[in-house]
Amino acid sequence: MENTLKIFEVVSEKEGITIGALERAIGASKGVLSRAINNGTDVQSKWLVSLIEKYPNYDYKNMLMGKFSTSEFRPEFHVAEESSLQHYEKKDTNKQIEDVAYGINRRFDDVERALKILMLDISEVKLKADAVDPEKITKALVDLGELKGKV
Questions:
Q1: pLDDT band at 145 (very low <50, low <70, confident <90, very high)
Q2: CA pair distance 85, 54, nearest whole angstrom
Q3: What are the DSSP E strand ranges found in the chain?
Q4: Is 31 left (phi over 0), alpha (psi -120 to 50) or beta?
Q5: How many angstroms separate the CA atoms of 88 and 73, rounded?
Q6: Is 57 helix (H, G, I), strand (E, B) or coil?
Q7: Computed from CA positions of residues 79, 80, 84, 85, in that sequence, does the dihedral angle turn out positive or negative?
Q8: Which among 35, 38, 63 is positioned nearest to 48, based on CA atoms?
Q9: Cβ atoms of 12 and 21 closer than 8 Å
Q10: Cα separation of 17 and 11, whole Å?
């Protein structure tokens, strides 16, 4: 807990702002950090997360382990981390694009199969229609009418 509170003090000092200004910057209510520092009580982890998001250039891992030195501010570390993060984001984005493309290809294959089946059905209907002789149909209707008249 001491290390957590000290992190807020170190960041505010390095940034050249008061604890109150730091509270406002991370969205904490007035007095949340200053009361915890003065009383030696703990703060919610969401404020530490907010601090890390707002001020990412600090070596929080070492500070959480109680290693406070002159190297808390390490922009070169952050730049390398950001570059690595961008690599993973690109990798994730490429994977998402590949997944979407795969899904589209599967849907395209499904549509293509359905169209082939439909075309076969249409061809079959057409063949049956071509096989029917209109004269035979007319004669069958006439015969049916004559048969009906005899009954």
A1: confident
A2: 17
A3: none
A4: left
A5: 24
A6: coil
A7: negative
A8: 63
A9: yes
A10: 9
Structure confidence by residue, pLDDT tens digits, 39-84: 988 888 899 899 988 888 888 887 887 777 655 454 444 444 444 4
Burial class (CB in 10 A: 0-12, 13-18, 19+), 3: middle
User: Per the structure block, which two tokens stand in for 35?
Assistant: 């009361």
- Residues facing 129 on adjacent strands: none
**What are the helix (H) ranges across 27-74?**
32-39, 45-54, 60-64
How many C-beta atoms lie closer than 10 Å to residue 83's C-beta? 9
Q: Give the separation between CA 64 and CA 74, rounded to whole angstroms.
A: 15
Q: Against a cut of 0.70, is the pTM above it?
A: no
72: phi > 0 → left, psi -120 to 50 → alpha, else beta; which?
alpha
Q: How far is CA 56 from the centre of its chain?
A: 23
Q: Name the β-bridge partners of 58.
A: 73
Let me know how long the chain is: 151
Strand partners, 6: none
